[in-house]
Amino acid sequence: TSDDFFAALAKAANDPRIVPAMRSFVEQQGVPLLVFQRQGNRMVVGQMRYAPLGVTAPDTRWIMPVCVRQGTVSECKMLDGRSTSFEISGAQPFVPNEWGVGYYRFELPRRDWATLITNAGALTAGEAMAVADSLYASVLAGRGTVDELARLSQSLSKHKERRGAFAADVAIGKLVRLGVVDSLGRMGWGRLRQRLYADKLKEYGFDPRAGAYAKESPARTQWRQSLVTTLLGTVRGAK
Fold it and tell me: Could you tell me the pTM of the whole model?
């Protein structure tokens, strides 16, 4: 039964809190939203259920592990109430989802969003994807902006891992398909993609003949596929 499964996980982890934590996700709908706020030398975080603009979400509470990072200093806590807090120090970016493995979205004060966006190139691929997803969700909730996502795309475009390099671009693409971005914005997005990724495609090359890259590594092929797909959405790429 599910009870047996959860109990086995708790026993292996030597932490009985895993049982109610698992239940809080399996038996409830929705995605947690963690809202971080600065209070002196601490970052206080509260939880609620994520909802886009115009939707009132029911009061929901989860029990979940939350791992954050600032520079090389990491801290993990089990959030089993309405809120908890983390100590912070220094000017390094505060990363609310270390490695991007936590199942939650987050909101930050605008200043912390700006710092995180500017320094996003140093994030792991998982963290970059978590940041892009949370900022995308923030735009849909009426808090974040497409301009912030565009700046994040610029910061991540040089990321060494493919998942990180395209994380923000994929998020903007979702907004475009939803009709959130107007025609002028879509034109600007096309120019941005061309500026960020055109030179990268020159590095990987493009030969449409069947089997032209049969002997190269799958990772390099995936990079090229992502670049071509992205640049097809630009004026020059369409030609």
Answer: 0.92
